[in-house]
Specification:
single chain, alpha+beta, Naphthalene 1,2-dioxygenase Alpha Subunit, Chain A, domain 1, Rieske Iron-sulfur Protein, 2 domains, nine-stranded mixed β-sheet, 11 helices, 21 strands, 20% helix, 22% strand, globular, Rieske_2Fe-2S_sf, iron-sulfur, Rieske_2Fe-2S, 2Fe-2S, oxidoreductase
Length: 478
């Protein structure tokens, strides 16, 4: 508990002696009783990501967030504040709205009770027929707590939960320079997948799988565990920090275009001066920091203004308990948010957000290699110059992979259809994770499943489950 890395609240994320060693039983991945306990003791207690402030800019704009058996309306008030209410009519429980929209008031489709933006009943038929008194001005929708952090909207069903910023601590301080509110969500895809939601908690709390499942990544993000920093924080949050340079154990063939060389060249660095691969990786990474610091203004990368040199070239991957992962880089963020199916513990929903900054105040986006993409934005985790093991297809430079306009988008809910419904994402690292779900679901049910045999770099996986256990046992998370 007392091992300090960088943040005073951080523990060494590779030291399992900091943890209890709770068993990770497989019933959690398919048992309905376990699912019910999670709902009662965890989902209704934590802060949950609902969306972004940009979705509800004007009074009357609202979004609907559904989670298992509950639905919540989050609406912009006339004074500019944001409030949230259960999506349940105070008359007889009818759902009021189904999807995001904007209106001056809410009308129940059943008996036409009308509510103001503040949740108060402002009208109903036969108002004088209530012996206990008119509900107008008297009855209100039940409110949920809502708060924001840097453009993200959160809510909790727990009146006794800590304040949002306390719950997220120290995440808000760690990423204070990134200004997520200025980023544009240029892609928002949702799919339903046949696996328990916790598979992704396990998956995104380790990078042990990366060089095997995502073979394109080590050419630009160092995957060696001995060069990475691992941190676990209070309340179940955790992260890994990796350097934005090639892994020394992973080499691209000499006849293949190296994406890291492209990055260096884009910042005016002569890659011919590096005598060998090690120097390219290690000294090139240092030179890249200097070049970005020197040239960012003239290139229009004004979002670099407040970033430290480390933030310009490091690649942290942040897990926010219980169901958010953020790949945070200098030029954008990939945010992943997954949540359980309402009734089936072996299904879940998965949201992919790709977010990026405009360049120089224009509609230009920034591709992953750092190249200007001429008013287009490329997924921050697309393929980058290596072959896919299943399709044998070449990945091309990320600036040319499935670009989309850099503008805020609405939800695109896809039919996954064994990957056929997301063909445009086949070169995305997230799709490579999605392809593992069938095997995980089946294998986790097997009688051959035993207690996981975890490497030190997988300690964050155990920490997630121990935090979940704390909630299920009605204990405050450490």
């Amino acid at each position: 508990m007392d091992k300090i890395i960088k943040d005073p609240s951080a523990m060494d994320g590779k030291d399992s002696s900091n943890l209890r060693g709770d068993p990770i039983t497989n019933d959690r991945y398919f048992c309905k009783d376990f699912m019910a306990k999670e709902w009662e003791h965890m989902w209704t207690k934590v802060w949950l990501l609902a969306g972004r402030e940009v979705q509800i800019k004007e009074p009357g704009d609202y979004l609907v967030h559904d989670l298992m058996k509950e639905s919540v309306i989050i609406v912009r008030q006339k004074d500019g504040s944001i409030r949230g209410f259960y999506n349940s009519c105070a008359h007889r429980g009818q759902r009021l709205v189904e999807c995001n929209s904007s209106q001056d008031s809410f009308r129940c489709p059943y008996h036409d009770w009308q509510y103001g933006l503040n949740g108060e009943v402002i009208g109903c038929p036969d108002e004088d027929d209530y012996p206990q008194g008119s509900p107008v001005g008297k009855i209100k929708l039940v409110e949920v707590r809502v708060d924001t952090w840097d453009g993200f909207i959160f809510y909790t069903m727990n009146d006794e939960a800590p304040e949002l910023l306390e719950y997220l601590d120290p995440i808000t301080e760690i990423y204070k320079n990134h200004n997520f509110k200025d980023q544009i969500r240029a892609q928002w895809v949702r799919v339903e997948l046949d696996v328990n939601w916790k598979f992704f908690c396990d998956n995104f709390n380790e990078s042990y799988h990366t060089r095997f499942v995502h073979p394109q990544v080590p050419s630009v993000i160092d995957q060696d565990h001995f060069t990475s920093r691992y941190e676990i924080f209070p309340k179940g949050h955790a992260r890994i920090i990796q350097m934005g340079r090639p892994s020394l154990r992973d080499r691209i063939k000499e006849d293949e275009v190296h994406p890291f060389k492209m990055i260096l060249e884009d910042w005016g660095i002569d890659v011919g001066k590096y005598p060998d691969y090690e120097t390219l990786s290690e000294q090139g990474w240092i030179d890249l920091k200097k070049a970005k610091r020197k040239l960012y203004k003239e290139k229009g990368y004004h979002h670099y203004e407040n970033l430290t040199d480390e933030e310009l070239t490091e690649s942290p991957f942040q897990f926010v308990f219980p169901n958010i992962a953020m790949g945070v880089q200098a030029d954008g963020c990939i945010l992943l948010n997954w949540f359980p199916h309402p009734t089936d513990p072996e299904k879940c929903f998965f949201d992919l957000w790709d977010m990026g900054y405009p360049i120089g105040g224009s509609a230009k986006g920034i591709g992953k290699t750092g190249r200007d993409t001429d008013q287009e934005f490329t997924s921050t985790s697309a393929g980058i110059g290596k072959k896919d093991r299943d399709t044998d297809q070449e990945f091309i430079s990320r600036t040319k992979v499935n670009p989309v306009k850099l503008q805020e988008v609405e939800l695109d809910f896809r039919d996954y259809d064994n990957g056929k419904g997301v063909e445009d994402l086949w070169d995305h690292v997230v799709y490579q994770d999605w392809k593992l779900t069938d095997g995980a679901r089946l294998g986790l049910r097997s009688k051959g499943y035993q207690e996981p045999y975890l490497a030190a770099q997988e300690t964050r996986v155990r920490y997630f489950h121990e935090t979940l256990h704390d909630y299920l046992n009605s204990k405050p998370p450490r």
